[in-house]
UniProtKB/TrEMBL annotation:
InterPro entries: Methyltransf_12, SAM-dependent_MTases_sf. The keyword Hydrolase does not apply. GO terms for molecular function: methyltransferase activity. GO terms for biological process: methylation. This is Methyltransferase domain-containing protein. Keywords: Methyltransferase, Transferase. It holds the Pfam family Methyltransf_12. CDD domains: AdoMet_MTases. Residues 32-130 form the Methyltransferase type domain. It comes from the Bacteria.
Length: 240
């Protein structure tokens, strides 16, 4: 992966990883990563001593996950299972009740979030943690306007129902209400990528230290509620 892509990946995942890494998990925790792909989070969690099962529909992604785990000498702690969120909770190969379930960028892809959240709760032990990342509804208006697509921005602003052709997006109030209805207790809601998607890539490539400074800025605003409506995504931590 070239440096610009590495920088973007670090910015997109950095704040979420800070939250996940800071969770008070037990030693050798059981973790299920729904839609975990090639293991960007899974391998790092395994490096902390946790047992991680990645559920993903892509055989290629799971093969890359296996290679990544072997290269890190963590193959015994990382398992790949082919499937997706709609297959839960009856998917073969899942561990017993999990201490932590990750569901990053997946909930918006299912037709109905309510049964999906119920299935995620069933994966958790009592008191376990769900780490949920969803696209944030208001950010679409800002992103389209910044790109010069003003009519599309107006349509997004006035939309009263989600577009079935696009990933589902949620406001903070909407996702909190869905989680509470599913039986979760919401512990925190943080903004993700408040500025990252709006900063020209060339600026990060040319300005020394720009990536690190932007990541620190993202960390600073992630916990400020007044910036949630600007964030491209929301990271919610909830207990089962």
């Amino acid at each position: 992966m070239d440096r610009p892509l590495e920088r973007r990946a670090a910015l997109r995942a950095g704040v979420v990883w800070d939250d996940v890494r800071g969770l008070p998990l037990p030693e050798h925790a059981t973790v299920v990563d729904i839609g975990g792909g090639t293991g960007g989070f899974a391998v790092r969690l395994a490096a902390l001593g946790h047992q991680v099962v990645v559920v993903d529909p892509s055989p290629d992604a799971l093969a890359a996950l296996g290679r990544r785990a072997r290269e890190a000498d963590l193959a015994s702690l990382v398992t790949g299972v082919q499937g997706d969120l709609s297959d839960l909770p009856d998917l073969p190969g899942l561990p017993g009740p999990a201490d932590l379930v990750l569901c990053h960028g997946v909930l918006g892809l299912v037709e109905r979030p309510e049964p999906a959240l119920a299935a995620l709760r069933d994966l958790l032990r009592p008191g376990g943690t769900l780490s949920l990342v969803v696209a944030q509804r208001h950010a679409m208006v800002l992103a389209r306007a910044m790109a010069g697509h003003f009519q599309q921005a107006r349509l997004a602003l006035e939309a009263t129902a989600p577009d079935p052709a696009q990933e589902g997006r949620f406001t903070a109030d909407e996702i909190i209400a869905l989680l509470v209805e599913a039986g979760f207790g919401v512990a925190a809601v943080h903004g993700v990528r408040v500025f990252t998607d709006l900063v020209p890539a060339g600026l990060l490539d040319l300005e020394p230290g720009a990536t690190e400074a932007l990541l620190e800025l993202e960390r600073a605003v992630a916990v400020r509620s007044e910036y949630l409506a600007l964030a491209a995504a929301l990271h919610v931590l909830a207990s089962g």
